[in-house]
């Protein structure tokens, strides 16, 4: 599956309009980095990708199994260590309005790790850049 996202940054420092198909969002940098904090910063967008994909993947599985779960909470903390080239994602998942047993929780852990964004982030990544 290929997706195309376009980011446009004009004269307003770091304020970037990002478009994917018919959807649009704003990214910016925090004030302490020279931005105006009008939108998610790029690291927040990266963590958002993992959190939202995890939640959707779990929801699809839970619905298929017809388990009663009122709410899925996924919190992702991203810590970047540029000097060591290490990036750590800490993902915390909880469920509300349910009594899942130990076996169900083990299965949901496997399903969370099968989310497509998780797979991308834990496999080889290649970035090809072209200037036009």
Automatic annotation (TrEMBL):
It comes from the Bacteria. PANTHER family: OSMC-LIKE PROTEIN (PTHR39624:SF2), PROTEIN INVOLVED IN RIMO-MEDIATED BETA-METHYLTHIOLATION OF RIBOSOMAL PROTEIN S12 YCAO (PTHR39624). Pfam families: OsmC (PF02566). This is Putative redox protein. It comes from Chryseobacterium limigenitum. InterPro entries: KH_dom-like_a/b (IPR015946), OsmC/Ohr_fam (IPR003718), OsmC/Ohrsf (IPR036102).
């Amino acid at each position: 599956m290929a997706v195309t996202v376009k980011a446009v940054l004009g004269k307003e420092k770091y304020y970037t309009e990002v478009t994917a198909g018919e959807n649009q969002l704003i990214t910016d940098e925090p004030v302490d980095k020279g931005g105006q904090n009008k939108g998610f910063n790029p690291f927040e967008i990266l963590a958002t990708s993992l959190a939202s994909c995890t939640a959707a993947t779990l929801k699809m599985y839970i619905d298929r199994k017809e388990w009663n779960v009122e709410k899925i909470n996924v919190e992702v903390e991203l810590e970047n260590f540029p000097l060591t080239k290490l990036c750590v994602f800490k993902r915390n998942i909880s469920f509300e309005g349910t009594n899942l047993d130990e076996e169900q929780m083990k299965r949901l852990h496997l399903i969370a790790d099968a989310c497509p964004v998780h797979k991308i982030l834990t496999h080889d990544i290649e970035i090809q850049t072209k200037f036009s």
